[in-house]
Amino acid sequence: MSSHLISLMIAIPFLGALLEVVTPLMGGRSTLCRWIAITASLMSSLVGIVMVSSLHGNQPGLQINEVFNWVGSYAMTYDVGLDGLNVLFVILISIVFPLLVLSEWNRKQGAPGVFGLFLLLQTGFLGSVVSQDLFLMVFFWSFTAVPLYFLFAVWGGQEREASAFRFITMSALGNALFLMALVIIYFSVEPHSFSIKDLMGDRIHGTFDLFGSQVPIASIAFLLLSMGIACRLPLWPFHGWFTFQATQSPASFFVLLSAITAPIGLAVFARLALSLFPAEFSRWSHVIVALGAINVIFGALMAVSQRELRLLMAYAAMTQMGVVLVGLGSRDSAGVVGAIYQLLVQGLALTGFGFFVGSVRDRMGHSAFVSDEGKPNFGGWVAFTPFLALLTALVFAGMLGLPGLGGFIGQSLIMMGSYSSYPLPMTMIALGVFLIGYQFFSVYRSIFLGAAHGSDSKEVFDLSLREKSLILPIVFCLIVLGFFPRPLLELVRPSVAMVLSMMK
Amino acid sequence: MNLLNALIPEIVLCLTLIGLVITETAYASEKYRLVIWTALLGLFTAGVRLVFDYALLGQSLYDKTILIDGVSIFFHFLFIFLGVLTVIAVSFSKEISPSRYGEMFIFLIAAVLTQFVATSAGDLLLIFVSLQAFVALSVFLLGADRQSATSAEAGYKLLVFQVLSSFFFLLAAAVLYQATRSFNIYEIKSILAQTPLDSGQLLIVFACFFSSVAFQLGIFPLYFWTVDVFDGAPTPSAAYLALAFPMTAVAYFLRITIVIFAGKDPADASHFVFPGNWGEILSFCAGLTVLIGALGSMHQKSLKRTLSYLMLSQMGFAFLGVVVLDHQSLAAAMYHWTTLLFSVSGVFASYSFLFDATQSPVLSDFRGIFYKRPIETLCFIVFLACFLGLPPSPGYLSQFTLLDSVVKQHRLVLGAASVFSWVLWIIVLGKITFVLTQRTDSPVSVSADSGESRFRRIFLLSLMVPVALLICFAESVLQWTRSSIQWVLW
After folding, report:
1. d(C-alpha A178, C-alpha A229), whole Å
2. For residues A230 and A224, is the Cβ–Cβ distance under 8 A?
3. How far is CA A173 from CA A166, A169, A227, B28, in A?
4. Arithmetic mean of pLDDT, A33-40
């Protein structure tokens, strides 16, 4: 397998975005814009899937790798590669981005801008997950905040100014902390290096004089890195911007945050924390697990009290993030593999949920399923929208981790890996999943079941061909991930075992 | 012959000046176009000839009065690029009447010539004279729009503060002359090696040199003129002077500091140290400048004033490289200047085109202009992102290289202040971008698109090529800057 393919996968969306920039000079027709976008996105995805399918199971380390010198005097290399720790996220991006382009297919206003920014994001996120050089990773990860900001600021909701401002402030803060961690890491090793391979396994030594006490540099770098990434994720107590964004963004844009940024952010954290800071990760694992458990309970309790589908989605995403954090913090092979697997499932399921929310808003103009008086706004949709009802049920089931769907595998592995070390957080997770499940069933019942009211068959119609093509692939993937997890787990497990062995 | 050979770029610029005067006076009907092409041709020819100066590296003229080294050639290239970009920006801007092109370009080429002399001079008196000429020409450039009170006021402010700057420079030179009986920096160095200045003299000399440079760079505490001047000047002049002053100041300050004052760090041969506590004082001033600029930019109602504050903040950041004073930081600072050259030119050029459409500098008057002038607005945002160091721009890389140097020298507070300012810049960028791209029920009224708009857009888009090259070939540019800085030590 040619190593150039990995660069091709990153470069194609970027070239597509450049083409989108010049489309206004060619008349700016939305037809041209969307075809450029879907072609570039699909081509990149195709290259990604081809590479993933060529990987061999039970093989730790990089299987496809491309390296060349970029800024040699600062030890910066263009080093990108595929291994078990990032392969699932390449799959996630390859599946979700073409669907996102498709979800905005009928956009008339600002088509070049929206599609161009989607493509830039595809490049940015792919670059973030495949980077094997720390500077390159920070470079791509920090870059992703820019297109997201433009999407929220230009095409957001009524209060897009405030929501975009909150987003960019938190992102800038997070990226700055990440940058500080990067500089500290760079200077703490001799010879200076950004290569993750060179930095693996507690290479960061030395102490830093902080108000008279000697603090290990590794601790400072680890905390800065963790805080930097946390600022950009839906994590308690930094989640305020995220839930506000949920109420202001179109569904497809919010999918970018909840189903792409959140899993990719945790993937970046997992790679760096496990590889670069095994000792620090062990020391802080109890805090990580506690934070995860708080997120689960907080997200679930908040989700139960929501009347709006977008906010429900936001808090469900928080809950899922908590579950994954507990898995990562377990430091057990099954728990960490489950956490990485769950990130893929969570990304797909939240994408499906986002498309469902978009479908409801397209039909009703809002997504509040309960009125301010506490009465259901919708009901009996199953009679008009049987296909939507079926696919939504499967997406909900995927998120809840019901057997036969991907979430079951991920959550089971996390529980298996974490229960022996952290029984209390696992109990909290079970409680959180129960609460979320209760809320999902309530939502499903109030929208699809019961007597029809608040709407009729004229305004509530079943999924169009385009809408089916959005949700069906997601459901298909969730089922495949539920029934045939082994090939992917076998790709992830050896790499996880390798990084965990450094910890033990 | 050898002497003439070394001065060919300067001679070409002189010939261009003569050509411009003839064109301005003799060809009344075609002079607008002719002056543009004459100026561009002159700058281009001088730039091409500069390449051959590398064959003369290490030589000097008139007993080390004019030096041909890597630093001077590097900055000469930047001045040529800046001159070319300014000529193009002026010719597209509606802020300057075409009838003023001739005089504007004459002042501009003459200013480039004085910058050439100031950056390659090894004699304090020659530096002083060339700086005086440069200041006088800059005043005319700033006051290009004589009908505008703000433009004239900017010119006067610049004159007053630069006279102060010159005074400090002259005072320092006089004290050095009194102690060494020489104006040549290399002679001064050799004499001082045998009979050093006493601490009082050293304090006066260095404080005066620093004050002179601080005025020109706009470094704390002598920064207060910069924002008013950039805000009041016609945009192409502001862009030119925002870069020309600090670049010239840094070039001669670097030379004087390294040759006369800096001693080699005993622990690290590649690192120089300032005399006394000046290293810490300069760090403090640079850090405060970065912060003041960043904080000041957050509360402005005028877009141009916001840009001026951001420019001030960037000046402080660029000065970090000089403060750290080792090979790596100086090379990083020069890379940063190269990045700033294109990003600042892009920012001001695209702002100028947007300003032509709105005829108002107030930020809220640009609301939703993205939908009326998409290419110009997009270019403005991209160049601003590069200017402020957002990835994937070369600005991010250049700021990282500077930050790297700062942290390497354990100036962690300075590093933290820089990163904090970076967060503020991003927030300001977000605020500006939001206004430009905001949909509104009462869309901004803009003047009709002129026939020149296509050429303007091509200019802006083509300006992105060097920006992209700077990130792709960062290592090559850094090698160039590193090799350039070596020569200042010969």
Report:
1. 7
2. no
3. 11, 6, 9, 57
4. 90
Distance CA A250, CA A274 (A): 35
Domain-located, residue B333? yes
Q: In this structure, which long-range contacts are made by residues A456-464, counting pairs with CB atoms below 8 Å and at least 24 apart in sequence?
A: A456/A384, A457/A383, A457/A384, A459/A363, A459/A364, A460/A363, A460/A364, A460/A378, A460/A381, A460/A384, A460/A385, A461/A363, A461/A384, A461/A385, A462/A384, A462/A385, A462/A386, A462/A387, A462/A388, A463/A359, A463/A385, A463/A387, A463/A388, A463/A391
Q: Is B48 on the interface with A (CB under 8 A)?
A: no
Q: What are phi and psi of B264, to 5 degrees?
A: -80, 140
Q: Is the pTM of this model over 0.80?
A: yes
Suggest the residue from A70, A73, A173, A217 to mutate for an interface test with chain B (most B CBs closer than 10 A): A73
What is the predicted pLDDT for the residue at A99? Answer: 92
Nearest CA to CA, how far is B465 from chain A (Å)?
13
Domain that holds residue B429: 263-490
Sign of the alpha-carbon dihedral angle for A278, A231, B312, B204:
negative
Residue B490: predicted pLDDT: 44
Asked whether the beta carbons of residue B430 and residue A169 sit closer than 8 angstroms, the reply is yes
**CB-CB under 8 Å, A143 with B391:** yes
The whole-angstrom separation of Cα A349 and Cα A129 is: 20
In a domain, B318, yes or no: yes
Proportion of chain A above pLDDT 70, given as a percent: 97
Q: How many domains does chain B have?
A: 1
Count of H helices and E strands in chain B?
19, 4
Mean pLDDT to the nearest integer, A376-404? 83
Closest residue by Cα to residue B250 from B308, B177, B323: B323
Please report the pLDDT score of residue B229 as a whole number. Answer: 78
| Region A307-318 average pLDDT | 87
pLDDT digits (tens, 9 = 90+) for A203-240: 777 777 777 778 888 888 899 999 999 988 888 888 88
Residue B251 within any structural domain of the chain: no
**By CB neighbour count within 10 A (0-12 exposed, 13-18 middle, 19+ buried), where does B472 fall?**
exposed
* Tokens standing for residue A494: 């050896």
By the 8 A CB rule, do A151 and A167 touch? no
Report residue A339's pLDDT band, with 50, 70 and 90 as the boundaries. Answer: very high
Nearest chain A Cα to B391, which residue?
Answer: A143
Inspect the interface and report whether the beta carbons of B397 and A71 lie closer than 8 Å. yes
Residue B118 near residue B130, CB atoms below 8 Å: yes
pLDDT at B54: 79
What is the rounded CA–CA span in Å between residue B294 and residue B309? 7
Q: Which burial class, exposed, middle or buried, applies to B301 when counting CB atoms under 10 A from its CB (0-12, 13-18, 19+)? A: exposed
Is B468 inside any structural domain?
Answer: yes
